[in-house]
Batch of 2 targets.
Target 1
Amino acid sequence: MYKRISIYKTQLLSFLVGCLFCVQPVAAQSDSLLQQLISANNVDSSLIQPPAKMLFTQRALWGTGGLLKNRYSGNDLVANRQKDLKIRRTMLQLHQIGGFVTIGGMIAQGVIGSKLYKGDFKVRELHENMGMAVNLTYGFTALNGLFAPPAAFSRDKKITSIRLHKWLAVLHLSGMIATNILGTQIENNVSLKPYHRAAAYVSFASLATALIVIKF
Protein backbone atom coordinates (compact mmCIF):
# COMPACT_ATOMS: atom_id res chain seq x y z
CA MET A 1 0.00 0.00 0.00
CA TYR A 2 2.81 2.42 0.90
CA LYS A 3 4.45 1.61 -2.42
CA ARG A 4 1.23 2.64 -4.22
CA ILE A 5 1.16 5.92 -2.28
CA SER A 6 4.75 6.62 -3.30
CA ILE A 7 3.88 6.02 -6.95
CA TYR A 8 0.93 8.44 -6.75
CA LYS A 9 3.11 11.10 -5.13
CA THR A 10 5.64 10.70 -7.94
CA GLN A 11 2.90 11.12 -10.54
CA LEU A 12 1.64 14.31 -8.90
CA LEU A 13 5.18 15.71 -8.67
CA SER A 14 5.67 15.06 -12.38
CA PHE A 15 2.48 16.95 -13.18
CA LEU A 16 3.61 19.88 -11.02
CA VAL A 17 6.96 20.11 -12.79
CA GLY A 18 5.21 20.04 -16.15
CA CYS A 19 2.95 22.87 -15.02
CA LEU A 20 5.90 25.16 -14.48
CA PHE A 21 6.56 25.03 -18.22
CA CYS A 22 2.88 25.32 -19.18
CA VAL A 23 2.37 28.66 -17.43
CA GLN A 24 4.88 30.52 -19.59
CA PRO A 25 2.36 31.54 -22.30
CA VAL A 26 0.17 33.16 -19.63
CA ALA A 27 3.13 35.11 -18.27
CA ALA A 28 4.14 36.22 -21.77
CA GLN A 29 0.63 37.48 -22.59
CA SER A 30 0.41 39.42 -19.33
CA ASP A 31 3.85 40.95 -19.84
CA SER A 32 2.74 42.12 -23.27
CA LEU A 33 -0.29 43.85 -21.78
CA LEU A 34 1.85 45.45 -19.09
CA GLN A 35 4.27 46.75 -21.69
CA GLN A 36 1.41 48.52 -23.45
CA LEU A 37 0.69 50.43 -20.26
CA ILE A 38 4.28 51.18 -19.32
CA SER A 39 5.58 52.30 -22.73
CA ALA A 40 2.81 54.79 -23.59
CA ASN A 41 2.33 58.17 -21.92
CA ASN A 42 -1.00 58.82 -23.63
CA VAL A 43 -2.27 55.29 -23.14
CA ASP A 44 -5.73 54.37 -24.39
CA SER A 45 -8.13 54.59 -21.43
CA SER A 46 -9.84 51.36 -22.58
CA LEU A 47 -6.65 49.48 -21.64
CA ILE A 48 -6.55 51.04 -18.17
CA GLN A 49 -10.15 50.98 -17.07
CA PRO A 50 -11.51 47.57 -16.03
CA PRO A 51 -13.98 46.12 -18.55
CA ALA A 52 -17.70 46.78 -18.07
CA LYS A 53 -18.44 43.05 -17.99
CA MET A 54 -16.78 41.05 -15.22
CA LEU A 55 -17.50 37.96 -13.18
CA PHE A 56 -19.49 38.77 -10.05
CA THR A 57 -16.51 37.67 -7.97
CA GLN A 58 -14.24 40.10 -9.82
CA ARG A 59 -16.83 42.87 -9.54
CA ALA A 60 -16.97 42.38 -5.76
CA LEU A 61 -13.29 43.35 -5.56
CA TRP A 62 -12.37 45.28 -8.68
CA GLY A 63 -15.70 46.76 -9.89
CA THR A 64 -16.74 50.40 -9.56
CA GLY A 65 -18.70 49.49 -6.44
CA GLY A 66 -16.29 46.84 -5.19
CA LEU A 67 -13.99 46.77 -2.20
CA LEU A 68 -11.13 48.25 -4.26
CA LYS A 69 -13.24 50.75 -6.22
CA ASN A 70 -10.97 53.72 -5.46
CA ARG A 71 -8.04 52.17 -7.32
CA TYR A 72 -9.32 53.49 -10.65
CA SER A 73 -9.60 57.17 -9.87
CA GLY A 74 -7.12 60.01 -9.57
CA ASN A 75 -3.54 60.25 -10.75
CA ASP A 76 -2.57 56.71 -9.76
CA LEU A 77 -4.85 55.07 -12.33
CA VAL A 78 -2.11 53.78 -14.64
CA ALA A 79 0.17 52.69 -11.79
CA ASN A 80 -2.66 50.79 -10.09
CA ARG A 81 -3.66 49.01 -13.28
CA GLN A 82 -0.03 48.01 -13.80
CA LYS A 83 -0.03 46.47 -10.32
CA ASP A 84 -3.39 44.79 -10.97
CA LEU A 85 -2.15 43.16 -14.16
CA LYS A 86 0.92 41.84 -12.36
CA ILE A 87 -1.37 40.36 -9.72
CA ARG A 88 -3.53 38.93 -12.51
CA ARG A 89 -0.51 37.30 -14.13
CA THR A 90 0.52 35.63 -10.87
CA MET A 91 -3.00 34.44 -10.07
CA LEU A 92 -3.52 33.02 -13.56
CA GLN A 93 -0.21 31.18 -13.30
CA LEU A 94 -1.35 29.67 -10.00
CA HIS A 95 -4.72 28.93 -11.59
CA GLN A 96 -3.09 26.98 -14.38
CA ILE A 97 -0.69 25.12 -12.09
CA GLY A 98 -3.58 24.23 -9.79
CA GLY A 99 -5.55 22.89 -12.73
CA PHE A 100 -2.80 20.48 -13.78
CA VAL A 101 -2.17 19.35 -10.20
CA THR A 102 -5.90 18.73 -9.81
CA ILE A 103 -5.93 16.65 -13.00
CA GLY A 104 -3.04 14.60 -11.62
CA GLY A 105 -4.94 14.04 -8.39
CA MET A 106 -8.06 13.03 -10.30
CA ILE A 107 -6.12 10.41 -12.24
CA ALA A 108 -4.65 8.98 -9.04
CA GLN A 109 -8.06 9.02 -7.36
CA GLY A 110 -9.61 7.28 -10.37
CA VAL A 111 -7.04 4.47 -10.20
CA ILE A 112 -7.66 4.03 -6.48
CA GLY A 113 -11.43 4.28 -6.97
CA SER A 114 -11.43 1.50 -9.55
CA LYS A 115 -9.79 -0.80 -7.00
CA LEU A 116 -12.34 0.22 -4.40
CA TYR A 117 -15.20 -0.52 -6.82
CA LYS A 118 -13.73 -3.99 -7.34
CA GLY A 119 -13.94 -4.72 -3.62
CA ASP A 120 -10.47 -3.73 -2.40
CA PHE A 121 -11.69 -1.88 0.69
CA LYS A 122 -8.14 -1.48 1.99
CA VAL A 123 -7.80 1.59 -0.22
CA ARG A 124 -10.98 3.29 1.05
CA GLU A 125 -9.14 5.67 3.37
CA LEU A 126 -6.56 6.46 0.68
CA HIS A 127 -9.39 7.18 -1.77
CA GLU A 128 -11.06 9.55 0.69
CA ASN A 129 -7.80 11.34 1.46
CA MET A 130 -7.06 11.73 -2.24
CA GLY A 131 -10.58 13.09 -2.74
CA MET A 132 -9.96 15.69 -0.05
CA ALA A 133 -6.68 16.68 -1.69
CA VAL A 134 -8.39 17.04 -5.09
CA ASN A 135 -11.10 19.23 -3.55
CA LEU A 136 -8.46 21.45 -1.96
CA THR A 137 -6.43 21.89 -5.15
CA TYR A 138 -9.62 22.42 -7.17
CA GLY A 139 -10.81 25.08 -4.72
CA PHE A 140 -7.41 26.79 -4.83
CA THR A 141 -7.52 26.76 -8.63
CA ALA A 142 -11.06 28.15 -8.73
CA LEU A 143 -10.33 30.99 -6.29
CA ASN A 144 -7.36 32.19 -8.34
CA GLY A 145 -9.47 32.18 -11.49
CA LEU A 146 -12.58 33.79 -9.99
CA PHE A 147 -10.92 36.60 -8.05
CA ALA A 148 -8.08 37.58 -10.39
CA PRO A 149 -8.17 41.25 -11.47
CA PRO A 150 -9.97 41.78 -14.80
CA ALA A 151 -8.09 41.87 -18.08
CA ALA A 152 -6.86 45.09 -19.68
CA PHE A 153 -9.53 44.97 -22.35
CA SER A 154 -13.08 43.77 -22.91
CA ARG A 155 -13.43 40.65 -24.99
CA ASP A 156 -15.78 40.49 -27.96
CA LYS A 157 -18.72 38.12 -28.30
CA LYS A 158 -16.95 35.65 -30.59
CA ILE A 159 -16.40 32.08 -29.44
CA THR A 160 -12.82 32.08 -28.21
CA SER A 161 -10.68 29.70 -26.18
CA ILE A 162 -11.24 31.91 -23.12
CA ARG A 163 -15.01 31.73 -23.55
CA LEU A 164 -14.91 27.95 -24.01
CA HIS A 165 -12.72 27.70 -20.92
CA LYS A 166 -15.38 29.54 -18.89
CA TRP A 167 -18.26 27.41 -20.25
CA LEU A 168 -16.35 24.26 -19.39
CA ALA A 169 -15.72 25.66 -15.90
CA VAL A 170 -19.46 25.62 -15.27
CA LEU A 171 -19.57 21.99 -16.34
CA HIS A 172 -16.67 20.71 -14.25
CA LEU A 173 -17.81 22.73 -11.22
CA SER A 174 -21.24 21.09 -11.46
CA GLY A 175 -19.55 17.71 -11.86
CA MET A 176 -17.38 18.26 -8.80
CA ILE A 177 -20.37 19.21 -6.67
CA ALA A 178 -22.32 16.16 -7.87
CA THR A 179 -19.35 13.85 -7.33
CA ASN A 180 -18.93 14.97 -3.73
CA ILE A 181 -22.63 14.79 -2.89
CA LEU A 182 -23.05 11.34 -4.42
CA GLY A 183 -19.84 10.14 -2.76
CA THR A 184 -21.29 10.84 0.68
CA GLN A 185 -24.46 8.89 -0.15
CA ILE A 186 -22.94 5.71 -1.62
CA GLU A 187 -22.42 4.00 1.73
CA ASN A 188 -26.16 4.16 2.39
CA ASN A 189 -27.21 3.57 -1.22
CA VAL A 190 -24.81 1.53 -3.36
CA SER A 191 -27.03 1.99 -6.42
CA LEU A 192 -25.57 5.51 -6.69
CA LYS A 193 -22.13 4.17 -7.65
CA PRO A 194 -22.63 4.47 -11.43
CA TYR A 195 -23.85 8.06 -11.07
CA HIS A 196 -20.93 8.92 -8.80
CA ARG A 197 -18.49 7.50 -11.33
CA ALA A 198 -20.23 9.29 -14.22
CA ALA A 199 -20.07 12.63 -12.39
CA ALA A 200 -16.36 12.04 -11.71
CA TYR A 201 -15.72 11.28 -15.39
CA VAL A 202 -17.58 14.44 -16.45
CA SER A 203 -15.54 16.52 -14.00
CA PHE A 204 -12.27 15.06 -15.24
CA ALA A 205 -13.11 15.29 -18.95
CA SER A 206 -14.41 18.87 -18.78
CA LEU A 207 -11.49 20.08 -16.63
CA ALA A 208 -8.95 18.41 -18.93
CA THR A 209 -10.66 19.95 -21.98
CA ALA A 210 -10.69 23.36 -20.30
CA LEU A 211 -6.93 23.09 -19.79
CA ILE A 212 -6.40 22.05 -23.39
CA VAL A 213 -8.49 24.79 -25.03
CA ILE A 214 -6.77 27.54 -23.04
CA LYS A 215 -3.46 26.44 -24.57
CA PHE A 216 -4.62 26.80 -28.21
Note: The CA atoms of residues 49 and 72 lie 7 Å apart.
Target 2
Amino acid sequence: MRAARLSIALEEGGLALPQAGPIAVFRPRAGDDLSALPMERVEVIQGFRPDHDAFARAGYATAVAPQGRYGAALICLPRNRDQARGLIAQAAGLTDGPVVVDGQKTDGVDGLLRDCRKRAAVSGPVIKAHGKLFWFDAAGVDMADWALAPGHTPEGFVTLPGVFSADGVDPGSALLGQALPERMAGRVADLGAGWGYLSAQILRREGVREVHLIEAEHAALDCARENVRDARARFHWADVTRFEPPAPFDIVVSNPPFHSGRDGAPALGAAFIAAAARMLAPRGALWLVANRHLPYEAPLQAAFARIEAMGGDTRYKIIRATRPRKETRG
Protein backbone atom coordinates (compact mmCIF):
# COMPACT_ATOMS: atom_id res chain seq x y z
CA MET A 1 0.00 0.00 0.00
CA ARG A 2 2.71 2.46 1.01
CA ALA A 3 4.90 1.32 -1.87
CA ALA A 4 2.08 1.79 -4.39
CA ARG A 5 1.33 5.34 -3.24
CA LEU A 6 5.02 6.26 -3.23
CA SER A 7 5.59 4.81 -6.70
CA ILE A 8 2.58 6.68 -8.13
CA ALA A 9 3.80 9.95 -6.59
CA LEU A 10 7.30 9.49 -8.02
CA GLU A 11 6.26 8.25 -11.46
CA GLU A 12 3.04 10.16 -12.12
CA GLY A 13 2.30 12.60 -9.33
CA GLY A 14 5.12 15.09 -9.63
CA LEU A 15 7.13 14.14 -6.56
CA ALA A 16 10.82 14.66 -7.40
CA LEU A 17 13.64 13.48 -5.17
CA PRO A 18 16.84 15.53 -5.08
CA GLN A 19 19.74 14.07 -7.05
CA ALA A 20 21.99 13.87 -4.00
CA GLY A 21 21.79 13.68 -0.25
CA PRO A 22 20.50 11.04 2.18
CA ILE A 23 16.80 10.25 2.42
CA ALA A 24 15.39 9.81 5.92
CA VAL A 25 12.53 7.34 6.37
CA PHE A 26 10.87 7.81 9.75
CA ARG A 27 9.16 4.90 11.52
CA PRO A 28 8.59 2.36 8.74
CA ARG A 29 7.30 -1.00 9.93
CA ALA A 30 8.93 -4.34 9.18
CA GLY A 31 7.58 -5.49 5.85
CA ASP A 32 7.12 -2.00 4.42
CA ASP A 33 8.38 -1.91 0.84
CA LEU A 34 10.82 0.98 0.35
CA SER A 35 12.11 -0.20 -3.02
CA ALA A 36 10.79 2.92 -4.77
CA LEU A 37 13.62 4.82 -3.03
CA PRO A 38 17.34 4.43 -3.84
CA MET A 39 18.45 2.05 -1.09
CA GLU A 40 22.01 3.35 -0.96
CA ARG A 41 20.71 6.78 0.08
CA VAL A 42 18.03 5.67 2.54
CA GLU A 43 18.50 5.94 6.30
CA VAL A 44 15.75 4.25 8.29
CA ILE A 45 15.02 6.07 11.55
CA GLN A 46 13.20 3.66 13.80
CA GLY A 47 13.27 3.28 17.58
CA PHE A 48 11.20 0.10 17.80
CA ARG A 49 13.82 -2.63 18.01
CA PRO A 50 12.13 -5.42 15.99
CA ASP A 51 11.42 -3.06 13.07
CA HIS A 52 14.86 -1.42 13.37
CA ASP A 53 16.55 -4.81 13.24
CA ALA A 54 14.42 -6.01 10.31
CA PHE A 55 15.62 -3.12 8.14
CA ALA A 56 19.20 -3.55 9.31
CA ARG A 57 19.07 -7.22 8.31
CA ALA A 58 17.70 -6.15 4.92
CA GLY A 59 20.82 -4.04 4.39
CA TYR A 60 19.48 -0.55 5.15
CA ALA A 61 21.39 2.05 7.11
CA THR A 62 19.47 2.42 10.39
CA ALA A 63 19.42 4.78 13.34
CA VAL A 64 17.19 5.54 16.30
CA ALA A 65 17.44 9.31 15.75
CA PRO A 66 18.30 11.58 12.80
CA GLN A 67 21.98 11.92 11.93
CA GLY A 68 22.48 15.37 10.41
CA ARG A 69 20.59 16.84 7.46
CA TYR A 70 18.70 15.13 4.65
CA GLY A 71 17.84 15.82 1.04
CA ALA A 72 14.35 14.35 1.49
CA ALA A 73 12.29 12.65 4.17
CA LEU A 74 9.42 10.17 4.29
CA ILE A 75 7.26 9.94 7.41
CA CYS A 76 5.36 6.67 7.86
CA LEU A 77 2.62 7.88 10.14
CA PRO A 78 2.18 6.36 13.57
CA ARG A 79 -1.32 6.34 15.00
CA ASN A 80 -0.71 8.85 17.77
CA ARG A 81 -1.47 12.36 16.50
CA ASP A 82 1.05 14.20 18.67
CA GLN A 83 3.79 11.74 17.81
CA ALA A 84 2.96 12.11 14.10
CA ARG A 85 3.09 15.91 14.33
CA GLY A 86 6.39 15.66 16.15
CA LEU A 87 7.91 13.52 13.40
CA ILE A 88 6.69 15.93 10.70
CA ALA A 89 8.17 18.88 12.61
CA GLN A 90 11.46 17.05 13.12
CA ALA A 91 11.69 16.13 9.44
CA ALA A 92 10.83 19.67 8.33
CA GLY A 93 13.63 21.06 10.48
CA LEU A 94 16.26 18.66 9.10
CA THR A 95 15.34 18.39 5.43
CA ASP A 96 16.41 20.60 2.55
CA GLY A 97 13.95 19.17 0.03
CA PRO A 98 10.56 17.43 0.08
CA VAL A 99 8.97 16.06 3.24
CA VAL A 100 6.64 13.22 2.27
CA VAL A 101 3.88 12.06 4.62
CA ASP A 102 2.15 8.72 4.16
CA GLY A 103 -0.48 6.92 6.18
CA GLN A 104 -3.78 5.09 6.33
CA LYS A 105 -7.06 6.73 7.25
CA THR A 106 -6.85 4.87 10.55
CA ASP A 107 -3.53 6.66 11.18
CA GLY A 108 -5.28 10.05 11.02
CA VAL A 109 -3.77 11.04 7.67
CA ASP A 110 -6.80 13.12 6.68
CA GLY A 111 -6.53 15.39 9.70
CA LEU A 112 -2.78 15.77 9.29
CA LEU A 113 -3.23 16.68 5.62
CA ARG A 114 -5.63 19.45 6.64
CA ASP A 115 -3.23 20.66 9.33
CA CYS A 116 -0.22 20.67 6.98
CA ARG A 117 -2.13 22.63 4.36
CA LYS A 118 -2.40 25.45 6.89
CA ARG A 119 1.40 25.50 7.26
CA ALA A 120 2.86 24.72 3.85
CA ALA A 121 2.18 24.46 0.12
CA VAL A 122 1.12 20.82 0.02
CA SER A 123 1.24 18.71 -3.14
CA GLY A 124 -0.90 15.64 -3.73
CA PRO A 125 -2.47 13.72 -2.23
CA VAL A 126 -2.05 10.36 -3.84
CA ILE A 127 -5.02 8.31 -2.69
CA LYS A 128 -4.94 4.53 -2.79
CA ALA A 129 -5.78 1.53 -0.59
CA HIS A 130 -7.54 3.52 2.15
CA GLY A 131 -4.56 5.80 2.59
CA LYS A 132 -3.02 9.02 1.36
CA LEU A 133 0.43 10.34 0.57
CA PHE A 134 1.25 14.05 0.30
CA TRP A 135 4.35 16.21 0.40
CA PHE A 136 5.67 19.73 0.82
CA ASP A 137 8.99 21.51 0.42
CA ALA A 138 10.59 22.02 3.83
CA ALA A 139 12.27 25.30 2.84
CA GLY A 140 10.81 28.14 4.87
CA VAL A 141 8.34 25.92 6.74
CA ASP A 142 8.34 26.37 10.51
CA MET A 143 6.62 23.65 12.50
CA ALA A 144 8.59 24.06 15.72
CA ASP A 145 5.40 24.25 17.78
CA TRP A 146 4.64 20.64 16.75
CA ALA A 147 7.91 19.35 18.19
CA LEU A 148 7.58 16.31 20.39
CA ALA A 149 7.94 17.21 24.06
CA PRO A 150 7.99 15.00 27.18
CA GLY A 151 4.94 15.04 29.41
CA HIS A 152 4.15 13.80 32.90
CA THR A 153 1.53 11.44 34.26
CA PRO A 154 -0.63 12.60 37.17
CA GLU A 155 1.73 10.55 39.35
CA GLY A 156 4.74 12.55 38.13
CA PHE A 157 6.33 10.00 35.80
CA VAL A 158 8.00 11.27 32.61
CA THR A 159 6.37 9.98 29.40
CA LEU A 160 6.25 10.86 25.71
CA PRO A 161 3.39 10.85 23.18
CA GLY A 162 3.25 7.55 21.36
CA VAL A 163 4.65 5.35 24.15
CA PHE A 164 2.32 2.90 25.86
CA SER A 165 0.11 4.42 28.57
CA ALA A 166 1.58 7.90 28.13
CA ASP A 167 -1.29 9.60 29.97
CA GLY A 168 -1.06 7.66 33.21
CA VAL A 169 -0.31 4.36 34.89
CA ASP A 170 -1.90 1.44 33.05
CA PRO A 171 -4.59 -0.14 35.28
CA GLY A 172 -3.20 -3.62 34.72
CA SER A 173 0.29 -2.54 35.71
CA ALA A 174 -1.12 -0.81 38.79
CA LEU A 175 -2.84 -4.04 39.89
CA LEU A 176 0.30 -6.07 39.34
CA GLY A 177 2.40 -3.52 41.21
CA GLN A 178 0.07 -3.86 44.21
CA ALA A 179 0.09 -7.67 44.06
CA LEU A 180 3.86 -8.17 43.99
CA PRO A 181 5.29 -9.69 47.17
CA GLU A 182 7.01 -7.46 49.69
CA ARG A 183 10.21 -9.45 49.33
CA MET A 184 11.64 -10.05 45.84
CA ALA A 185 15.15 -11.27 46.48
CA GLY A 186 17.75 -11.48 43.75
CA ARG A 187 17.85 -10.44 40.11
CA VAL A 188 14.56 -9.30 38.58
CA ALA A 189 13.60 -8.65 34.96
CA ASP A 190 10.78 -6.38 33.79
CA LEU A 191 9.82 -7.60 30.31
CA GLY A 192 8.33 -4.85 28.16
CA ALA A 193 9.24 -2.33 30.84
CA GLY A 194 7.81 0.69 29.02
CA TRP A 195 8.52 3.94 30.83
CA GLY A 196 9.40 2.10 34.03
CA TYR A 197 6.35 2.01 36.30
CA LEU A 198 6.63 -1.65 37.32
CA SER A 199 10.39 -1.43 37.76
CA ALA A 200 9.90 1.52 40.11
CA GLN A 201 7.53 -0.65 42.19
CA ILE A 202 9.91 -3.61 42.15
CA LEU A 203 12.77 -1.49 43.48
CA ARG A 204 10.69 -0.67 46.56
CA ARG A 205 10.65 -4.35 47.53
CA GLU A 206 13.04 -5.90 50.02
CA GLY A 207 15.95 -7.95 48.72
CA VAL A 208 16.11 -6.74 45.12
CA ARG A 209 19.72 -6.71 43.90
CA GLU A 210 19.14 -5.73 40.26
CA VAL A 211 16.24 -4.86 38.01
CA HIS A 212 16.72 -5.32 34.28
CA LEU A 213 14.36 -3.18 32.21
CA ILE A 214 13.99 -4.85 28.81
CA GLU A 215 12.06 -2.67 26.36
CA ALA A 216 11.84 -2.59 22.55
CA GLU A 217 10.75 1.05 22.19
CA HIS A 218 13.77 3.32 22.49
CA ALA A 219 11.72 6.40 23.41
CA ALA A 220 9.98 4.53 26.23
CA LEU A 221 13.32 3.32 27.59
CA ASP A 222 14.63 6.91 27.55
CA CYS A 223 11.64 7.85 29.71
CA ALA A 224 12.40 4.92 32.01
CA ARG A 225 15.90 6.24 32.57
CA GLU A 226 14.32 9.41 33.93
CA ASN A 227 11.77 7.58 36.05
CA VAL A 228 14.00 4.86 37.50
CA ARG A 229 17.06 6.57 38.92
CA ASP A 230 18.43 3.71 40.96
CA ALA A 231 21.91 2.22 40.76
CA ARG A 232 20.37 -1.26 40.72
CA ALA A 233 18.57 -0.61 37.42
CA ARG A 234 19.95 -1.99 34.15
CA PHE A 235 18.47 -0.80 30.86
CA HIS A 236 18.28 -2.93 27.72
CA TRP A 237 16.95 -1.72 24.37
CA ALA A 238 15.95 -5.12 23.07
CA ASP A 239 13.27 -7.34 21.60
CA VAL A 240 12.13 -9.38 24.59
CA THR A 241 11.55 -12.46 22.45
CA ARG A 242 15.20 -12.44 21.32
CA PHE A 243 16.92 -11.14 24.47
CA GLU A 244 19.60 -13.33 26.03
CA PRO A 245 20.27 -12.39 29.67
CA PRO A 246 23.81 -12.48 31.01
CA ALA A 247 22.62 -14.84 33.75
CA PRO A 248 19.25 -16.38 34.72
CA PHE A 249 16.78 -14.22 36.61
CA ASP A 250 15.20 -15.09 39.94
CA ILE A 251 11.95 -13.27 39.14
CA VAL A 252 10.39 -12.00 35.93
CA VAL A 253 7.58 -9.44 35.97
CA SER A 254 5.56 -8.53 32.90
CA ASN A 255 2.51 -6.75 31.54
CA PRO A 256 3.05 -8.06 28.00
CA PRO A 257 1.75 -6.26 24.92
CA PHE A 258 -1.08 -7.91 23.04
CA HIS A 259 -1.15 -5.63 20.00
CA SER A 260 1.31 -5.20 17.14
CA GLY A 261 0.63 -1.77 15.69
CA ARG A 262 -3.14 -1.57 15.31
CA ASP A 263 -3.64 -5.35 15.10
CA GLY A 264 -4.45 -7.65 17.98
CA ALA A 265 -1.60 -10.11 18.49
CA PRO A 266 -2.08 -12.41 21.49
CA ALA A 267 0.75 -14.54 20.11
CA LEU A 268 3.09 -11.73 21.14
CA GLY A 269 2.05 -12.14 24.77
CA ALA A 270 2.54 -15.89 24.42
CA ALA A 271 6.06 -15.23 23.12
CA PHE A 272 6.74 -13.09 26.21
CA ILE A 273 5.67 -16.00 28.41
CA ALA A 274 8.01 -18.40 26.62
CA ALA A 275 10.83 -15.83 26.86
CA ALA A 276 10.22 -15.43 30.61
CA ALA A 277 10.50 -19.19 31.16
CA ARG A 278 13.69 -19.28 29.12
CA MET A 279 15.25 -16.45 31.16
CA LEU A 280 14.35 -17.78 34.61
CA ALA A 281 16.45 -19.86 36.96
CA PRO A 282 14.96 -23.32 37.74
CA ARG A 283 13.41 -22.02 40.99
CA GLY A 284 12.40 -18.69 39.47
CA ALA A 285 8.91 -17.21 39.20
CA LEU A 286 6.98 -15.20 36.64
CA TRP A 287 4.47 -12.57 37.80
CA LEU A 288 2.14 -11.67 34.94
CA VAL A 289 -0.88 -9.42 34.43
CA ALA A 290 -3.15 -9.74 31.41
CA ASN A 291 -6.65 -8.91 30.25
CA ARG A 292 -8.98 -11.72 31.29
CA HIS A 293 -10.05 -12.49 27.71
CA LEU A 294 -6.53 -13.24 26.51
CA PRO A 295 -5.87 -16.96 25.91
CA TYR A 296 -2.65 -17.31 27.86
CA GLU A 297 -3.48 -20.49 29.77
CA ALA A 298 -2.09 -22.84 27.10
CA PRO A 299 1.23 -21.00 26.63
CA LEU A 300 1.61 -20.75 30.41
CA GLN A 301 1.05 -24.48 30.83
CA ALA A 302 3.51 -25.18 28.01
CA ALA A 303 6.21 -23.06 29.66
CA PHE A 304 5.64 -23.69 33.39
CA ALA A 305 4.77 -26.69 35.55
CA ARG A 306 2.82 -24.68 38.13
CA ILE A 307 0.32 -21.87 37.48
CA GLU A 308 -1.43 -19.93 40.28
CA ALA A 309 -4.12 -17.25 40.09
CA MET A 310 -3.06 -14.39 42.36
CA GLY A 311 -6.05 -12.08 42.06
CA GLY A 312 -7.02 -9.26 39.76
CA ASP A 313 -10.40 -7.76 38.98
CA THR A 314 -13.15 -8.06 36.38
CA ARG A 315 -10.80 -6.84 33.62
CA TYR A 316 -7.42 -8.28 34.56
CA LYS A 317 -5.96 -11.53 35.84
CA ILE A 318 -2.75 -11.78 37.83
CA ILE A 319 -0.82 -15.03 37.54
CA ARG A 320 2.23 -16.46 39.25
CA ALA A 321 3.99 -19.18 37.28
CA THR A 322 6.84 -21.28 38.67
CA ARG A 323 9.00 -24.27 37.73
CA PRO A 324 9.88 -23.23 34.17
CA ARG A 325 10.05 -26.23 31.91
CA LYS A 326 13.54 -27.26 30.82
CA GLU A 327 12.81 -27.07 27.10
CA THR A 328 11.79 -23.39 27.31
CA ARG A 329 14.78 -22.47 29.46
CA GLY A 330 17.19 -23.94 26.91
Note: The first helix runs from residue 2 to 11.
